[in-house]
């Protein structure tokens, strides 16, 4: 047991989320300091005493820029049950696998004109995509090496500001208070499920320019052990800490959906923070849409058969898992997405006033 623990922390020393637990207030306030991306440690939108230094420092975990992709047929090292984050823009379809994100945490990409940063925090299990276009400039994001509520703090290279991944806003620096523009939908599911839906998908190549053991999960039993935590974080015992949930967030509030309520496939409609939302899925994935306004009168049925088709409505339209109307009188239209992401249960009430959806 002792040997396993030592091996785990040796691996963590290579990553942003190491076991040092050093608080951020001991760092220099020089914005040009190579060891600290924080312009002023006193000007944070979050409690600075709860911001921890993960150990490797700024860019200690190298974010990827202009990543290489391969076809599904050439993705021989990915197993069907490996989790990916899926994104589609027009005819361009991409999958970002956890196997790479566990080691790099941020992928700076461009998908047919959409400049996005796919961010993933292994310690909170949260995958969220942001636009890299901020105030008229296009930037890239890097890993700061800092953590808040054990969650990733990216920084943007244009302004050197720090951002909270789960809060989706800049929390320190010249952009402090700026909200991230979410790129939606970003759907998390197993690779085998995604490629069955979208066989033409491209997926991240393991040819990243870095030597990493992408076939090895670097955190031991972290994602399955509800008692394993590397940094202080509030616990909420309503659900197991590491249960994966879908969180719909708005105005500081969150509504969490559980996979056990979608067994066999299901749809739920709910009014939440002034929106009419529809959440659909099964035991493998969940996705959320905004059905406010004129389309709120549509009646949806779950018809997923393993293809990209997810829903059918009473007008005869068929809608994909990404919200595209792929046939019927509304073909070419798209369901609006709501701010939503997958994550470990404990991470949601650590940031938001959280309800658990009860069917």
Descriptive notes:
The structure is a single chain. With 359 residues, the protein is mainly β. The chain folds into 2 domains: 170 residues, no CATH class; 113 residues, Rieske Iron-sulfur Protein (3-layer Sandwich), CATH 2.102.10. 7% of the residues lie in helices and 37% in strands. Strands 4-17-6-5-16 form a 5-stranded mixed sheet. A 4-stranded antiparallel sheet has the order 1-2-12-13, with no helix packed on it. It has a 4-stranded mixed sheet with strand order 3-7-8-9. Strand 5 and strand 6 form a beta hairpin. The chain starts with a helix and ends with a strand. The N terminus is likely disordered.
Secondary structure layout plus pairing:
Layout: H1 2-12, E1 22-23, E2 51-53, E3 64-65, E4 69-71, E5 83-89, E6 92-97, H2 98-104, E7 106-111, E8 114-121, E9 126-131, E10 133-134, E11 137-138, E12 141-148, E13 151-156, E14 162-164, E15 169-172, E16 187-190, H3 191-197, E17 202-204, E18 244-250, E19 253-258, E20 266-272, E21 275-281, E22 286-290, E23 300-302, E24 309-313, E25 318-320, E26 325-327, E27 336-337, E28 340-344, E29 353-356
Parallel strand pairs: 3-7, 6-17, 19-29
Antiparallel strand pairs: 1-2, 2-12, 4-17, 5-6, 5-16, 7-8, 8-9, 10-11, 12-13, 14-15, 18-19, 18-28, 20-21, 21-22, 22-27, 23-24, 24-25, 25-26
